[in-house]
Amino acid sequence: MTTILTFAYLDPGTGSMLLQAIVGGGAGIVVLVRHFWRTMRVSREPLKPNTSGADA
Amino acid sequence: MVPTQEFAHGSFRDRSARVFYSDGLICRAIDASALEEWTWVSSRPFFQDAMNAQKIIQTSQASTEKSLVPNTGYVATLQHERVPLITWPYEWCFSMLRDAALLQLELMERSLKEDCILKDASAYNFQFQGTQPILIDTPSIVRMNPGTPWEGYRQFCQMFLYPLMLQAWKGVHFQPWLRGSLEGILPEQFARVLSWFDLFRSGAMTHVWLHARLQAVAETQVSTSSSLQAHGFNKQMIQNNVAGLTRLVGRLQWKEAKSVWSDYDNVTGPVSRDGHDKEQFVEKVCASGHWKTVWDLGCNQGRYSRIAAKRSEVVVAMDADHLTINRLYQALREEKNRIIVPLVTDLSDPSPGLGWRGQERSPLEQRSRPDLVLCLALIHHLVIGRNLLLSDVIRWLASLQATVVIEFIDRNDEQVQLLLRNRTDVFTDYSKEEFLRLVESHFVVQEQFGLPSGTRTLFQLKPLKP
């Protein structure tokens, strides 16, 4: 929580974070590939039908 | 708790640690989270080493909390050593910005080894003691959150890396860009400045082009930091980036060979003929007292700044010519000078108040008040070269309420004739008679000395009480 608060005043930029994986070396590329793979899967997942019966 | 004093105008972005002034001291009110960070970080060996080496400003926790008002969130006060002169990055030369960037990276590298990090990378976190950059924003060093990227990386690019690349690769002065935007140069903007050829330069493809492209692609992504953390991002990657940036910044060189003013002291004519006598005159005035702050206006290669530095606490050496200031800074750095601070300053267009309410970054006159002003071989450039009114220039000098050493150069001097060569002579106010009339209405003339050239006169002036 403390870290979140102290970092909160700065906009780091999403692209800047991703780039750091690239310039961070070979292992960083693996991290980036895994990140994009997961992001792609999440974006392609169909929305699950609402089975609870509650109104959305 | 909130201090009884007002906070500094530029200290509001980090709400957990804000600067205020108390009885001439530089203090920082910190809340519980910042106190926790301070207690941990300040006990790390790298922090103490950097403070002892004057790379981080001397800081201690004040023993008393009497300057804090209860029940307002601040729980403690840090006390910083006072820096004799506050300057802004758009007043620095290329080598100053580069040295500050390298110090930022050095502190990053050292802090990462002890699981700390500089949470931001603002060039405004640094000041200069002579030619030594120093980190003044101690609360920017915090414990690192394992697995998350360096949040200051983008800011480092915008405030340090791109301005340096702009100067080194394109020969474009970075100061107007930093003065035009306090956030620095955005990746998307800088990518458009580069040519195809530039993209083959070291660091251009990744830190500039890809940086700009990824920002555009990633705008729809959510929680990138957590995702990277979950997929194995680690400290070593930040260390690799910092090491790469250190190599990149270290290789950036501004190779300008010549500017209008870079060889001024080497020219022949009245400039060289009068040099020795001018030195003696300045030496005598400087020796007549101990000066807290000296302004050397139009300092060129710092010949007279060096004389003044023997008898003063700080000399602000100002010149509008970037290359001249860059060379002066490099020479002073070799000399390990801790008194003279060279600044790129155009007196006809000085640093204005900038940022939030025009108060975040204050004009030079609000940051520094001289008690001695050297104004040698300058006034003809202001009146004829920059079309300022002689009366305004004298009135402005008088408003500084300082002892002034000024040189007046007659119209028939070869350098003045050079200035008038391609101009319509509308400068009816530029004459020695008018100069003397104006000077005597604002100052007491303490001494007057005609230089060997016969066209130049030195004056020592004491301001009349306002």
| Secondary structure tally: strands of chain B | 17
Strand order in the largest sheet of chain B:
13-12-11-14-15-17-16
How much of the polypeptide of chain A forms β-strand, as a percent range? under 5%
Number of helices of chain A: 3
Provide the structure class of chain B.
alpha/beta
Description:
The complex is a heterodimer of chains A (56) and B (466). With 56 residues, chain A is mainly α. Chain A is built from 3 helices and no strands. In chain A, helix 2 packs across helix 3 (26-44). Helices cover 39% and strands 19% of the residues of chain B. The interface between A and B is large, with 31 and 49 residues.
Q: Gist?
A:
The complex is a heterodimer of chains A (about 55) and B (about 475). Chain A has about 55 residues and is mostly helical.
Key traits:
heterodimer, A: 3 helices, elongated, B: 466 residues, alpha/beta, 7-stranded mixed β-sheet
Which secondary structure elements does this structure contain, and how are they paired or packed?
The complex is a heterodimer of chains A (56) and B (466).
Chain A: H1 2-7, H2 14-23, H3 26-44
Helix pairs in contact in A: 2-3
Chain B: E1 2-3, E2 17-22, E3 25-31, H1 32-41, H2 45-52, E4 59-61, E5 68-69, E6 74-80, H3 94-113, E7 116-118, E8 126-129, E9 132-135, E10 141-143, H4 153-170, H5 175-180, H6 187-193, H7 204-217, H8 224-230, H9 235-251, H10 270-287, E11 291-297, H11 303-309, E12 312-319, H12 322-334, E13 340-344, H13 364-367, E14 372-375, H14 379-385, H15 390-399, E15 403-409, H16 414-420, H17 432-442, E16 443-450, E17 456-463
Helix pairs in contact in B: 3-4, 3-9, 6-7, 10-11, 15-17
